[in-house]
């Protein structure tokens, strides 16, 4: 018989939390870290001063002092922060930090980021864009750069591009240092930095400078929904030999998608090339643990993402029918649909919700729930690809790190603890589950065939048809 | 291979619906419950535990404390899983077992009768009657209660001493370290965990401990824990007379099977609850598995006491088959086959895996060791007679379970293994590979 006095159970483990550490005095920051913060602070101050309209505004000097200092200060801060630690997983205290665990600071960050998108999309005048005359305010702070690379005064879209690219580069430095024990993460981070800077920012802006049709070279239909719409097609064909090249590029990528996905999985695009993925993997990384990994979320995800795919297919087809029949079938209706898609999916979903909600719903909201490109890549990956995450025998001890840090909300553990491989449509191959696993259970691999990934994977078409029963695998 | 032993026993049709009570919701109890449901869709299954309402991962305790995860992230399944499986979860402590009457008395919830009972009560931290072990601030690390206690004990603490150089000790050190408390590990042996790890591996772990800024006192034993005057630990004194300040004293000198409930029953026990190879105890309709069970072996083989995660899972699945079987008739019930030994751990940032039999300190076993000249990386191949490979130790590298299992079960020789070493590598893509260097260096070390 057990003496009840020795028993302790009058606590609620669900509510307990086990340990937000008491607020202790922080050790004083070393001088070099203070300098990084100083640089960042000085940058912010000069930025505010310029928005107010000082003489610096719209000059190279002003840009260097504001954006330059902010970017440099933040990069150096991250560099220094991680350089002072031993290489390895650095997730201590994440769930105790308000900004990273949906606390008050997290909500503030979410509201700030959402707010930025709202301003960019709907209140450009607040940012200083003006239809007639030179830009002022925030937009003017990047004007010299705009003049240089595009030959035009800065617009809100130019500002957005600069901010977006800078965020990927600066937080890319953070990823480099955070994962300095992992070549996989370093190489894929370098890849998204290069693709964003070169393919999605510099080259497209140069197209503007040389009066060519605009195109981001790492964008593919249906993510860039209009790249194969009749209107864009007309732009391309009207731009001579170079236009033809752009058209071949745009169509070529659509064709290459299934082939590359067969060999490497969805990751070749989602966590190596894509701009949205690039931002999620860099700026978004601190919030990856917020992605909901319940089966309910998975169900919502499947319905939403495939609905968006159906919508973009329908819009694309209707636009072409409309074009070929010179409006006889759908008439003005197709134009409305096009605008509707561009607004709700292209702007509201991918921007305001997709990025603005990083600090609340995790860093892949758009990629999980909204991106039609991810839907297509996912279908290939799930049924006809060599990529899988191999589970190392029976080594899993169900700790849950993998599921917690999966940005796509995949319950990785539910497969690993059954010694099954992970073959899921949504996996973007970021590789973080494999890195955080304390028992080395997971490995991302391209096998030598698609047929050995799970039972029935040798008959992809059958597996696909079976899955349409809309049941959990 | 392993699948074969887990296949359903030959089931005759269930004649009646039975009520199976599973005591303990650790990995053993949870695995048994899930497997039993597969085998017996119509039986009633109740799983009782006093520690938590839902099964969670005990090895993940440290990650909750250092803020990598929340408690709910460590649950083995979503909450809705259990009702869907019709497995009733009861959060209560069983305080008395009446084996002949097939009755359990619960602390809060009255009495519960069963047709069949599984004891999966796990283990308890060892205590060695050290003077001062009941002071405030002195504790072990086993379950959620300890996590809560540690959280409270951390308040105002600056230094800690952890007694015992095993896996849990280093986890506790890492936990305290994350709260800015300076821990020192007190280890009786001349190197860290050297009753399990060969010297080279133990030294590597020692280096990782150093690099993290954690103290390590080798060949030191605890003599007493000193009261700080308020009933709380203030320092410890070693047998050599050294005094170390410590407001927290962690006792992690191993675990022993939890026999609290069976202590005053007729059920036979030695170190653990004694069971046969179908995991049946000496009492009718009562089984035991996991950390608390001690499996009898024939002849002069030592009884099996396996207290790790995967054996809990394996025994849990097997005991479900044994419970589901209708009779003890030969062939009707399965028997436990422990299979190839393996395990893995992480010491701070250093990963470690072991497959097969690698004895510490040589102990009559020849082995070959390769170590990277600057990185924390090493690999050992242990040999048996005739150059047959007996086991692997890998540090700072990952190896493939399937491949190692195959080689060891096929009795592959050293030459074959060195020729094919690359197949065993499980490191992430793009990591540098050292297998050719390993093979050359190991071949060179042989006469
Ligand atoms: C901190 C820590 C880290 C570990 N890390 C690893 C690791 O990395 N790898 C590894 O292989 N192993 C590890 N282990 C060991 C591993 O966790 C155990 O072997 C495993 O949990 C045993 O499972 P079990 O189900 O047999 O028992 P337990 O997990 O101990 O579960 C027993 C349950 O029974 C309940 N119980 C007991 N008595 C009663 C009663 N009278 N009434 C009601 N309920 C009762 C308890 O509350 C407990 O929840 C670790 C252990 C600890 C403590
Ligand atoms: S399953 Fe792993 S690799 Fe895939 S998205 Fe999730 S964390 Fe990344
Ligand atoms: S992180 Fe590793 S050990 Fe933990 S649940 Fe995932 S696969 Fe299993």
List the helices and strands and how they pair.
The complex is a heterodimer of chains A (473) and B (447).
Chain A: H1 13-16, H2 31-51, H3 60-83, H4 104-122, H5 124-127, H6 137-140, H7 143-150, H8 156-178, H9 183-209, H10 230-237, H11 240-264, H12 267-270, H13 275-282, H14 295-324, H15 332-353, H16 358-361, H17 365-369, H18 372-383, E1 387-391, H19 401-405, H20 412-416, H21 432-436, E2 442-446, H22 460-467
Antiparallel strand pairs in A: 1-2
Helix pairs in contact in A: 2-3, 3-8, 4-15, 8-9, 8-13, 9-13, 10-11, 14-15, 14-18
Chain B: H1 2-6, E1 19-23, H2 27-39, E2 44-49, H3 61-65, H4 81-84, E3 87-91, E4 94-98, E5 103-106, E6 110-113, E7 116-119, E8 123-125, E9 138-139, H5 144-154, E10 159-163, H6 167-178, E11 182-186, H7 199-211, E12 215-217, E13 222-227, E14 233-238, E15 243-245, E16 248-251, E17 255-257, E18 273-275, E19 286-288, E20 293-295, H8 309-324, E21 342-347, E22 350-356, E23 366-371, E24 378-383, E25 389-395, H9 401-410, H10 414-419, H11 435-444
Parallel strand pairs in B: 1-2, 1-7, 2-3, 7-19, 9-16, 10-11, 10-16, 11-12, 18-20
Antiparallel strand pairs in B: 4-5, 5-6, 8-17, 13-14, 14-15, 21-22, 22-25, 23-24, 24-25
The complex binds flavin-adenine dinucleotide and iron/sulfur cluster (SF4) (2 copies).
Write a short abstract of this structure.
Chain A has 473 residues and is an all-alpha fold.
* Shape call of chain B: globular
Radius of gyration of chain B: 24 Å
* Count of alpha/pi helices of chain B: 11
| Proportion of residues in extended strands of chain B | 25-35%
Which hetero ligands occur in this complex? flavin-adenine dinucleotide, iron/sulfur cluster
Helix count of chain A equals 22
Q: Which strand order spans the largest sheet of chain A, edge to edge or round the barrel? A: 1-2
Distance N to C terminus of chain B = 36 Å
Q: What's the pLDDT, averaged over the residues of chain B?
A: 92
Counting structural domains of chain B, the number is 3
CATH topology of the largest domain in chain B: the name is: FAD/NAD(P)-binding domain
Cofactor (chain B): FAD
Domain FAD/NAD(P)-binding (chain B): 19-297
Pfam families (chain B): Pyr_redox_2
Protein name (chain B): Assimilatory nitrate reductase electron transfer subunit
């Amino acid at each position: 018989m057990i003496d009840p006095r020795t028993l302790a159970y009058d606590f609620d483990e669900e509510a307990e939390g086990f340990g937000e550490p008491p607020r202790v005095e922080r050790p004083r920051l070393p001088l070099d870290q203070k300098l990084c913060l100083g640089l960042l602070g000085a940058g912010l101050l000069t930025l505010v001063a310029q928005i107010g309209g000082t003489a610096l505004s719209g000059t190279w000097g002003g840009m260097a002092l504001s954006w330059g200092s902010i970017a440099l200060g933040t990069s150096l801060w991250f560099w220094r922060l991680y350089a002072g630690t031993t290489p390895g997983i650095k997730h201590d205290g994440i769930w105790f930090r308000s900004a990273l665990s949906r606390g008050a600071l997290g909500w503030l960050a979410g509201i700030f980021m959402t707010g930025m998108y709202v301003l960019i999309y709907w209140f450009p005048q607040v940012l200083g864009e003006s239809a007639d005359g030179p830009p002022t305010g925030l937009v003017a702070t990047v004007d010299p750069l705009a003049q240089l690379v595009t030959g035009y005064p800065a617009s809100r879209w130019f500002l957005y591009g600069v901010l977006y690219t800078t965020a990927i580069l600066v937080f890319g430095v953070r990823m480099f240092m955070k994962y300095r024990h992992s070549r996989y993460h370093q190489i894929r981070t370098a890849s998204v930095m290069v693709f964003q800077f070169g393919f999605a920012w510099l080259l497209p802006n140069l197209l503007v400078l040389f009066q060519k049709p605009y195109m981001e070279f790492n964008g593919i239909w249906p993510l860039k929904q209009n790249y194969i719409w009749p209107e864009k097609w007309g732009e391309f064909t009207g731009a001579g030999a170079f236009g033809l090249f752009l058209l071949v590029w745009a169509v070529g990528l659509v064709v290459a998608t299934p082939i590359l996905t067969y060999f490497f999985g969805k990751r070749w695009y989602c966590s190596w090339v894509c701009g949205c993925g690039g931002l999620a993997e860099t700026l978004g990384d601190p919030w990856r643990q917020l992605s909901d990994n319940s089966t309910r979320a998975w169900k919502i995800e499947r319905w939403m993402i495939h609905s968006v795919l159906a919508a973009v297919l329908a819009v694309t087809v209707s636009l072409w029918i409309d074009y070929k029949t010179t409006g006889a079938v759908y008439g003005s209706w197709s134009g409305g649909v096009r605008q509707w898609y561009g607004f709700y999916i292209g702007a509201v979903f991918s921007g305001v919700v997709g990025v603005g909600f990083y600090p609340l719903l995790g860093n892949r909201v758009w990629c999980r729930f909204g991106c039609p490109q991810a839907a297509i890549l996912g279908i290939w990956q799930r049924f006809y690809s060599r990529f899988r995450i191999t589970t190392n025998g029976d080594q899993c001890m169900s700790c849950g790190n993998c599921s917690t840090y999966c940005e796509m909300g995949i319950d990785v553990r539910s497969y690993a603890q059954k010694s099954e491989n992970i073959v899921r449509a949504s996996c973007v191959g970021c590789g973080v589950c494999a890195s955080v696993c304390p028992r080395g259970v997971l490995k991302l691999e391209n096998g030598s065939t698609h047929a050995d990934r799970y039972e029935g994977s040798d008959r992809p078409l059958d597996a696909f048809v079976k899955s349409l029963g809309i049941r959990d695998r | 291979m392993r699948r074969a032993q887990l296949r359903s026993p030959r089931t005759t049709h269930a004649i009646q619906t039975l009520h199976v009570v599973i005591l303990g919701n650790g990995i053993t109890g949870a695995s048994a419950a899930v497997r039993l449901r597969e085998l017996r869709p119509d039986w009633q299954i109740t799983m009782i535990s006093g520690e938590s309402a839902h099964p969670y991962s005990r090895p993940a305790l440290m990650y909750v404390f250092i803020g990598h995860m929340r408690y709910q992230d460590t649950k083995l399944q979503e909450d809705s899983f259990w009702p869907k499986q019709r497995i009733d979860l009861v959060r209560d402590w069983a305080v008395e077992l009446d084996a002949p009457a097939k009755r359990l008395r619960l602390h809060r919830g009255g009495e519960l009768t069963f047709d069949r009972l599984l004891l999966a009560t796990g283990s308890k931290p060892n205590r060695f009657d050290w003077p001062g072990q009941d002071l405030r601030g002195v504790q072990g690390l086993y379950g959620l209660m300890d996590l809560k206690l540690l959280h409270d004990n951390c308040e105002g603490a600056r230094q800690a001493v952890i007694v015992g150089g095993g896996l849990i000790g280093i986890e506790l050190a890492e936990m305290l370290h994350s709260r800015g408390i300076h821990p020192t590990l007190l280890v009786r042996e001349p190197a860290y965990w050297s009753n399990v790890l060969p010297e080279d591996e133990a030294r590597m772990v020692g280096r990782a401990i150093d690099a993290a800024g954690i103290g390590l006192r080798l060949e030191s034993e605890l003599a007493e824990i000193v009261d700080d005057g308020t009933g709380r630990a203030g320092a410890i004194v070693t047998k050599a007379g050294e005094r170390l300040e410590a407001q927290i004293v962690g006792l992690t000198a191993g675990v022993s099977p939890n026999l609290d409930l069976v202590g005053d029953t007729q059920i036979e026990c030695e170190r653990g609850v004694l069971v046969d190879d179908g995991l049946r105890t000496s009492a009718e309709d009562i089984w035991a598995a996991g950390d608390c069970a001690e499996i009898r072996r024939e002849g002069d083989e030592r009884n099996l006491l396996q207290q790790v995660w995967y054996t809990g899972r394996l025994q849990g699945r097997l005991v479900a088959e044994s419970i589901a079987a209708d009779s003890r008739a030969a062939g009707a019930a399965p028997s436990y086959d422990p299979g190839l030994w393996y395990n893995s751990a992480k010491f701070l940032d250093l990963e470690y895996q072991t497959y097969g039999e690698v004895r510490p300190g040589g102990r009559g076993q020849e082995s070959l060791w390769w170590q990277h000249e600057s990185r924390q990386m090493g690999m050992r191949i242990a040999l048996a007679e005739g150059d047959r490979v007996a086991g692997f130790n890998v540090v700072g590298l990952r190896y493939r379970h399937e491949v190692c299992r195959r080689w060891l079960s096929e009795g592959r020789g050293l030459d074959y293994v060195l020729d094919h070493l690359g197949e065993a590598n499980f490191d992430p893509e793009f990591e540098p590979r050292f297998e050719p260097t390993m093979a050359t260096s190991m071949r060179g070390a042989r006469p």
